[in-house]
Amino acid sequence: MPDWHPATVATTGPAADGLTDLVLDIRGTPLVGMHAHPGQYVRLRLPGVSEGMFAIASPPDPQGTRWEFLLKDGAILPDALIRLPPGSLVEVSQPEGKGFPLERARGHDVLLFATGSGISPIRSLIASIRREREAFGRVTLYFGARTPGAFAYADELHEWEAGGVRVVRTCSQPGVSGWQGLTGYVQAHLGEEPVQDAVAFLCGQSTMVQGVKATLQARGVPKDAIFLNY
């Protein structure tokens, strides 16, 4: 059983269609400094509601006192968390999982793949990469969403690109939105980019993960250079 610690809701706000940002203040708890690797996740719980697992969307910070999360609407616990006013208490476990082994990517090109709310642990990874950008080769994010309004962190994409991360967005169900960008699945947009020396990090729906893994391996990326955050 995990140890539980009370954290305080700092802010909540819309992140994209069907997605909400949640920021928890962990000051005064043993959780400070426990987030060691991008891609790790925690358990959150509220009285009378079953616990759930959520990836930390902010980067590891030994002195950091705020953890960010991306909540997908439509389930009991996320919906309850979204409704909490600032100052409310949420019980939080210490971070779990190995996260993404960023050290394996140093000196290599980096391929990032995310769909939907799977961008949250990838966001943590991007922030970690940008802190030591010179340690990596080319860094490309392939980011997929169903509709144009479903891209979380849209206001940060220019910052990521300015920080040396190429962003390729694709929309699988643009409908009549007037979307002028790429369409289809993320793995369809690798193009002719050389990937044999790349290290890949993935998070999203299982069908995307399987499709990307198959495509990368067919293109020469070894299985042991493709990582999930669990």
TrEMBL record:
Domain FAD-binding FR-type: start-end pairs: 2-102
Pfam families: NAD_binding_1 (PF00175)
Alphabetical GO biological process terms: pyrimidine nucleotide biosynthetic process
InterPro entries attached to this UniProt entry: Cyt_c3_hydrogenase_gsu (IPR012165), FAD-bd_FR_type (IPR017927), Flavoprot_Pyr_Nucl_cyt_Rdtase (IPR001709), FNR_nucleotide-bd (IPR039261), OxRdtase_FAD/NAD-bd (IPR001433), Riboflavin_synthase-like_b-brl (IPR017938)
Source taxon at top rank: Bacteria
GO molecular function: 2 iron, 2 sulfur cluster binding; flavin adenine dinucleotide binding; oxidoreductase activity
Protein name per its UniProtKB record: NAD-binding oxidoreductase
Biological source species: Pyxidicoccus fallax
Source organism phylogeny: Bacteria, Pseudomonadati, Myxococcota, Myxococcia, Myxococcales
